[in-house]
Amino acid sequence: MSLIAGGLPAPMDIYTKLLERYTDDPMRIRNFSSELLEAYTAADRHYHTLQHLQQMLNVLEPVKEWFSDPDTLLFALFYHDIVYKVSRKDNEEKSAELARERLSALAYPSTGMERCRQMILATKGHTASGDTDIDLFTDADLSILGSSPEQYRTYAAQVRREYAIYPDPVYGPGRKKVLQHFLEMPFIFKTLYFRTAYESRARQNIQQELDTLF
Question: What total of structural domains would you count in the chain?
């Protein structure tokens, strides 16, 4: 499925069309879509929203011909942050579990369900997998790190708002640990395409944010 059809559709439009290829049950499509929309528009979300999904779709569009299993990659994209609570340590596992339940209800191929699970779980560590689809997917998830300085500052502020329950003395050290983890990687991006486009800027952006943290 092309990610573009007369201009890039909203994420929910793409998701609905994806569902329609695996079920003709309007109630199931409505329920699944409402569930997804409710999750990504929750009041406590500021970065992990539909905008994040749209941004991932945008950066994956130029490389869509490289996907070996585009539908599974898209399902992983839509479900990878469906469960997101800053107080939890198992968001990826819970998101993967929910994705598997929904794909099972669609009678999705078992191999596709397993690959979807692997893709979602890969966003926990963002390490190289050797699987092109997974590496493209996780690189797209991190592509905001290599955006313009203005976009990066907006992203950092949105993440801080999501963690608003934590005061600066708690948030700062935790955020530093995450950012330093990325800088300590040999490469933040696993694929040559994303590395060429985003690696240098990502490292500059991350360092600039680190310099502002307590």
Answer: 1
